[in-house]
Amino acid sequence: MGLLGWFNHDVITVLDFNREDFEVLFSEAVNMEKYAKSRLDILNDKVLALAFFEPSTRTRLSFETAMLRLGGRVIGFSGTEATSMAKGENLADTIRMLDSYANAIVIRHSLEGAAKFAAEIAESPVINAGDGSQNHPTQAMLDLYTIWREFNIIDGLSIGILGDLKYARVVNSLVQALSYYKVKLHLISPELLKPRRELLEFMNSRGMVYDWTDDPHNVIGDLDVLYVVRIQRERFPDPIEYERVKGAYRVDLKLLSRAKPNLVILHPLPRVDEVDFTVDNTHYAKYFRQAGLGVPLRMALLKLILKGGD
Amino acid sequence: MSSKKELIISKIRDGVVIDHIPAGRALVVLRLLGISGREGFRVALVMNVESRKLGTKDIVKIEGRELTKDELNLVALVAPTATVNIIRDYDVISKFKVVVPEVIEGLIKCKNPRCITNQQREPIRSRFRVVSRDPLKIVCEYCGTIHELNDIEKSLGVS
After folding, report:
1. Which residues from A are below 8 Å from B116, CB to CB?
2. A2-136+293-306 — its CATH code?
3. How many inter-chain contacts (A to B, CB under 8 Å) are there?
């Protein structure tokens, strides 16, 4: 794709983009950090629709903040109770309507493939803010951006991903995004939450270097980045299965006693109990910085999509 | 065709003969082509007969129904060895080996219940991309779920 390739482009999966596109995005995001608490009036004539069919705090509010900081306006809903979906309107009709009102649509939906379907219907660009257990591309872009901001480089890092590797969509998107870089991946999860076959086959097809363990102690000393995700209770088809794995892992000071001094801990948040609160005060904890960078990263994304690069 | 086989099935005048179907798969082939037998046209099935190429094979003859090459290529999903003979006035007017298409639309239901294509109230058709022909592996374009031959057979209701 390359420079200017973001303009008017849908963001359905990270695989719609390449490493060069990420570099364009990241350098734009560094610039946007200057305006993340002020205002840059470049999207004054634009309206962004936020269609959140599923709960969200950070993703929705950071998109909203990003659009407002760029001088644009936001319409939308969160949850379907107050919309005509509650009267039985389908996704296709809802998207057609938003498409006629807004310049771009951000969608989060519980069903896999919903964002791709929405993009086929809408003429305006559609940004996937999470579809079921499948993709969450802007989170993965934010994760990579945070890693890059911490280390100035992504190639050569040893990255551990701990938690629900089966149902967490951020894991899917993050691994896909990391496939553009030369990293070593340590996958850490309870046996029941190992990555799905689709992801394993993807890593193999891309020749990615990875291993799997059920115990973070086995690999903690090798890690530059420890990325933690919560167990995705809402995606378990069987509640008994959830009971079996809940609380299966926890990042605490004891685990970190064997960590490299410059280890960076990331988490897409929300967390349940997988990262102990005592970790928040250590220099390893970068998940709040990560959440904060969500605004400049999404400002950069919205600018590139709605206005193009310059 | 040997005279022995002609005892089983006579020649057709206009239609399609699908030969070299792996033994036992003729019913799946019919299902795949959307032929239930209730449509009224003549269909003949031969199952588990000797074949020089395959050891044993099935043959399907369909009379009086036009099938496009695209439709017939779908047969390759479950019968990759199949050959198709198009018959006009008792003569074979064209003959080809089926080839698995790159994209399969609408025919197969995605096995992921959380896939958007399984929403009945949305104007959407399933769409799969073939990632491997041997062994057969297709991927849902919407949710990324991998499907193999047994999933396709299940979707067609024949496993």
Report:
1. 91, 109, 111-114, 116-117, 131
2. 3.40.50.1370
3. 52
Res A3: pLDDT? 44
Q: Which of A134, A124, A209, A142 is nearest to A168 (CA)?
A: A134
The pLDDT-based confidence of B159 (bands split at 50, 70, 90) is low
Whether A111 sits inside 8 A of B124 (CB atoms) is: no
- Domain span(s) for CATH 3.40.50.1370 in chain A: 2-136+293-306, 137-291
Instruction: Name the H helices within B9-100.
Output: 26-32, 69-73
Write the DSSP symbol of residue A192: G
Instruction: Report the DSSP beta bridge partners of residue A211.
Output: A186
Contact A79, A108 (CB under 8 A): no
Pick the residue from chain A with its C-alpha nearest to B125: A117
Judged by CB atoms closer than 8 Å, whether chains meet at A132 and B142 is answered as no
ipTM for the assembly: 0.92
Nearest to A90 among B115, B122, B143 (CB): B122
Cα–Cα distance, A195 to A170 (Å, whole number) = 12
Hey, what amino acid is at A54? E
pTM: 0.91
Of A92, A132, A198, the CB nearest to B122: A92
Q: Which residue has the higher pLDDT, B53 or B137?
A: B137
Q: Do A90 and B143 touch (CB under 8 A)?
A: no
Q: What is the mean pLDDT of residues B96-120?
A: 94
Minimal CA separation from B143 to chain A, in Å: 5
Q: What does the mean pLDDT of chain B come to?
A: 90
Domain spanning A137-291: which CATH class is it, in words? Answer: alpha beta
Identify which of A252, A251, A258 has the alpha carbon closest to the alpha carbon of residue A227: A251
Q: Which value, in Å, is the radius of gyration of the alpha carbons in chain A? A: 19
